Amino acid sequence: MEEKNISSSSSCCISHEFYKSASKNPNKIAVIHASPRHLRKRTEIDQSTEEASPSHHHPPVYENDISFTYSEILEAVASLSRRIRFILDGGDDPSLIRSSSGPLSIDQSANAPRIVGIYMVPSVEYIISVLSVIRCGEAFMPLDPSWPNGRILSVVSSSAASLILCNSLLSDGNCTQQINKNHWLIESGGCPILVFSMKTILNKHFSHPSLLWPCGNMSLRSFCYLMHTSGSTGKPKGVCGTEQGLLNRFLWMQDIYPLCGQETLLFKTSIGFVDHLQEILGALLTSCTLVIPSFSGLKENILSIIEYLQDFSINRFVAVPSLMRILLPTLQSSPIMIIQNSLKLLILSGEILHISLWNSLAKLLPDTTILNLYGSTEVSGDCTYFECKRLSSIMDTESLSTVPIGIPIPNCEVRLVGEKAPNYGEIYVSGLCIATGYLNHGIMPLNTVKKLPESSFCCSVNEKESQLYFKTGDFAKQLPGGDLVFIGRNDRTVKVNGNRMALEEIENAIRTHEDVSDAAVIFKQGEGEFANLEAYIVLKLGHDSVKSLSFSLRGWLVDKLPLAMIPKRFFFVDSLPISSSRKVDYKLLSSLRCSMSDISSESEQIPHGNLLRTIKEAFCGALVVENIKNNDDFFTMGGDSVSAAHTCHKLGINMKLLCTFPTPLKLVAALLDPKIRVPTTLGMEVFGGGLQLPKGTDLKTNKPHSRLSSELGEPDAENRPDKVFKLEGHPNADSMTSFAISRCNKVIFGKNDNISKSFQETWLGEPKGSIRKLWKIHMESCVDASPLIVVRENDMFVYIGSHSHKFICVKASRQVDINCSGFVQWEAQLEGRIECSAAILGDFSVVVVGCYKGRIYFLNSLDGSIGWSFQTGGEVKSQPVVDRQRHLVWCGSYDHSLYALDYQSYCCVYKLDCGGSIYGSPAINEVDERLYFTSTNGCITALSLKAVPFTVLWMQDLGAPIFGSLSIDHINGNVICCLVNGHIVAVDVNGSIIWRGITGGPIFAGPCLSHVLYNQVVICSRDGGVYSFGLDTGNLLWKHDLGDPISSSAYIDENLQVHSDRLICVCGSSGSIVVLRIKLLDDDDSVEEKYVVEEFGKLDMEGGIFSSPVMIGGRIFVGSRDEYLHCLGIQIDQ
What we know:
Keywords: Phenylpropanoid metabolism. Pathway: Phytoalexin biosynthesis; 3,4',5-trihydroxystilbene biosynthesis; 3,4',5-trihydroxystilbene from trans-4-coumarate: step 1/2. Helix content is 19%, strand content 31%. It is an alpha+beta fold. Strands 21, 22, 23, 24, 25 and 26 form a six-stranded mixed beta sheet that branches. Strands 34-33-37-38-39-40 form a six-stranded antiparallel beta sheet, covered by helices on one side. Strands 5-11-8-6-7 form a five-stranded mixed beta sheet, with helices on both faces. The longest helix has 19 residues. The chain is elongated.
């Protein structure tokens, strides 16, 4: 099928189109380099030279933004294009740096253009470079500075580039590099480099001769740009894109969705994607304003795109669906009236657009036209389009899960080829959009394509004419109305977040490692999960070298592949499965989980020696923070080029090393890896821990950053991570002897070593234990809530409520003996029954608890008097969470809302509709200043607490309702979540599912994490099983069958141990209380840790138990449906 043509007689070339646009509006702002929002302040720009026109558009310019007019860009293009022509013709330039290896020999055909590389981040200089190369009749080649050096050198060499353009100061978002003769690209590239900036172009006038217009050249160039895509041969393929393809795409869009010069567009696409060219041309060929965001800011926080959409009233936005999926929760929870009014066209391409995402976007942006485009680099970006407003009528007769890719754009022919054509087949494309082919690759006749599947460009020959086709590898079906629907692919080319890549290229890169014998890479994307890559590796020396290789493999790949192509997980296997055709069986590989070692997190097990401590101390000094976690990124923690230079000076290393390996653990791996070249300036005192912070250095800040603290944890656990608590002093609370703990081993306030000092006890020998009753308090009805334990100096208090509406404070004896007792200090009668646990403010003055009537109470901890209360719209079963940094209490409700209550101002400052009831307690990661919460709609949501109003960062649908509380793995910031379908999921800070474990029954309680059971999370299931999963990979470490359904969480006694073994308390729903003993076996022959789990003691109660126990120093506090709060003790049977 073929779309009708659009006349292009008035548009001879891009250079003429830009000249006409710029000449008509010389003083209008063409490009704005936008600063991050925290640096922006609205300012009045000088409009005295603006053309007086009542309809003239003044784009917003803020303080610290840098703007350029059309006349400035036109002058810069004229100057730079002449300089490029002069250099390519053999002339010299004062800013030209030549390689010591001499010029490249170029075998150039008559109409083949010279290739000019552009090594820059998105900037006004990049735009000028593109227009200048086109203007002088040659072809430009984008070189993304974020690519590995090896990849850049490879494409420069394979393309035989004649010249490379560089900005004099290159910033890649983390570091700013000075381009000079010592730069690696000049030393290794073998290609002359012209270094310039916008400032030098406008200040220097070169008297080079005028240029002919490209359209006036008798021999038209065969292509005007060279863009590289991932290749199945293992090397990137250079696509030779044409000027007529770019113009045809631009003219089609301008004809159907015209820009009139009053609009503002956004240049946010990486230069490695062909879509960025239409972002540039769409603005500058129509006299619109193009805003270039801070790409370093986007790297740190992709959600800042929303700020640019709002602040600059962007009218047209191009994105991949996965990006919109990330932005959607924030857009849904924020006031976006500006975006709704300004955004006229949303262009989605690069991935499948699911119906569900379109439905959400259509509701959110009812007045925005949404387009779904299909194409690739080989077809100038796009060759078909579908306007989504037609979807409703199609859905009346068709059952679709994805939005159609539509019909061809003008001057493009799209046909389906195959046995079932024209209704189903592989997509072939021809017409003005198509590239001339791959650089240095031949074109095969159409009738031989099936025999040569590696050849994507083919030629159809008949008696009248020859026509070039691009064989896409994509399959589609055609609907009765003519629209195409994308089906999938039969090869191993995949898309990960919009990045097209051939898995063969990744495999070939891994195979070049000297320790690797073979490798296979697979693409995995479960329903509702983000796409990721997994690599399976066969080593030359077997599994003995796994540990050493795990330290360096990722760092080694950084120099070989773009970050998007580096697998997320690595597995070591003895061999790869082979199919009957003697090829790798990838389907079997995707389900293989035997005889392999997952090293996705093994790099975190590098010994914490002097080098790691020295690096972390240097990070702390530069960032002015108290502590740094092993995997904290220097730049996302606030580091910039100045602090990076300070850190590298302290460590005596090259700043590029810090930019490449920005976390302490990665930097240690790089420094210890002999394969990575480290500058000789690195002194031995670094490895000896010689760089020490001055004594008395005050690193305290208002914003805590530490995930680990050397003050916390067991004294003999030198290499084990310690639990993190946020510590703040208060005149009414002695931090040395005071703490508060709750279910799931959650420490609400206090230091763990102080808890240990108060209750620590070790039993030697091989004792057998039993559980005995110490005391109980009658609560007049069922006690399903879990107790809150508060210790203040020599006093211990238990706070708990029941179904009788009664909430009490019990003063308990600290000693565990026959004479210990508990008596009611006070009781309060609330409006509704109480099923949730309480929380306490950091100064221990106020206890916070919710009830079934929807009210949240703030009670005086000494006498139970009600100081303040807040009414929600539904039952409160969620334990409140105290956010001391912002003096807030966070709590969820059955009314589908999350509330933030200011306990100093006595008011609700924030309310968020969550789409489901909130039963579990939220969790706060104070390092990243994020709050995570879940609801019965099956979603986990991340909320940024960095600024008011709070913003939703992302929402991830986990696929089943969630009733339990959340826990955070403070080693890496992952959130652990239990689902009612029996699944346990680990989600990282970006919302990606890291791993998923499965139990044998529903889970209604939260996960239990403790520093004394390193790298484990303990889960209780309704199938009666107690499960332990590894925090790194989700592998099952051990399981114990209780024989009784479990509805509550486990508790690990961090104070009492038997030898080095640990005790865990779990409660069955029928009333059984069981203490388990966890033994770690000493097995030098085993790589994996092995555990023995045995029953240490058991007691059967009269009533069922749905209360989660708290166990401290051998004492157990738990509620029961026999209407009592019980205090039980572990007794040794010698």
